[in-house]
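Handout, page 2. Input:
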Amino acid sequence: MSDAATANEAVLNKEYLGPDSLRDELHAGLRDEQVDLNTIKEYFTPSAWRALQTRMAALRQCSWLCGVCAKSVEDVRSVGCDRCLLWFHYHCQGLAGNPTQSLYFCSSCKRA
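Output:
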């Protein structure tokens, strides 16, 4: 079952997600401090929520990696995608300068 299907089923059936519902790898975009996981807390068992919080703390301590080349974006001109929340080096996105739009979408999200 996909992540979306699991979440939709839980919402519809008012079921709680247990620790076994957590994926091995969390999406890197979750480390963005604008992502508020508390909006989904009610769908987790207490043990699953603690497990998620522990994994999120570890994820947020890691440096951001480019979504294309998987190298650090620290100290290099980079841009975050407003759809997938991943970060990219300018050169990995073919950007010569700052994006002109107020919202930026990476090449993968533009195609979606």
